[in-house]
Design brief:
With 111 residues, the chain is mainly alpha-helical. Helices cover 61% and strands 9% of the residues. The relative contact order is 0.14. It binds zinc ion.
């Protein structure tokens, strides 16, 4: 299916024709341009990547919860070291994912 991009807000519409009006910003049909096959593929890949980021973020959240319980348990220094590191690394990764997603959204990369 063809993809059309709103030249005002970057909204991506899928269909044979551009919509009469952009559902996001209200721009008229003339503001829409059809994406080339390569651009459309990039949008698909960006959506996939977005989904992977979100999936990873959910898993990291679980890592943070599990590790926090281990830190609380504090059985011995070896365990504490692993749980602390797991919690801190997962937290850093989650922040990186949030920042990356914000960049993509800011650029209007994702439809
Ligand atoms: Zn728009």
């Amino acid at each position: 299916m063809a993809k059309w991009k709103c030249g005002v807000c970057g909204y991506i519409h899928e269909g044979d024709e551009a919509p009469e009006q952009c559902p996001k910003c209200g721009a008229p049909k003339e503001k829409f341009a059809q994406l080339t096959a390569e651009e459309a593929e990039l949008v698909e890949r960006s959506r996939l990547s977005n989904g992977l980021h979100l999936q990873l973020s959910t898993l990291l959240e679980e890592v943070i919860c599990v590790a926090a319980r281990g830190v609380e348990d504090n059985l011995d220094p070896g365990c504490l070291k692993i749980f602390t590191q797991a919690r801190d690394c997962a937290w850093v990764l989650r922040q990186m994912i949030k920042a990356e997603i914000a960049t993509h959204v800011g650029k209007g990369k994702w439809g």
